[in-house]
Amino acid sequence: MSELLRHQDGVAVYMDDVLVYGDTPEEHERKLQCTLKTLEDTGFKLNTDKCLLRQKHLHYFGHCINKHGIRPDEVKVKAITQMQPPKDITDLRRILGMIHYLGRYLPNLSEVMRPLNHCHTTDHESRDVTAPAWRAPGHC
Length: 140
Known about the structure:
140 residues; alpha+beta; three-stranded antiparallel beta sheet; two-stranded antiparallel ribbon; elongated; EC 3.1.26.4; Rev_trsase/Diguanyl_cyclase; Retrovirus_Pol_polyprotein
């Protein structure tokens, strides 16, 4: 599907999801109709029960998308800010994965996370990542 729609302006495809966007309702409608026609002309069938059309606000893969842009989902951010310190390297890996998705929103995230990433990538498999290391990441 991504190959089929790759030349269409205002269309993003991820797996079998098709996101159509425009700066104005009229532009969005024009792009939507063009996309629907392309899919119909090539034999693609849409499951209308799963289609969300003409949405002004969308939660998608941990992000909120609206006319103001893309930002992290507040529920995901809240979950990250309320996490307990990691108890071991497995916890640290889980937490780093959760935080990683914020990278596009936080310009210096890689610098801030460097000490914890160091704990993850060096030979700390046998060491616990304790609460003090969480508060002072440079001391793994």
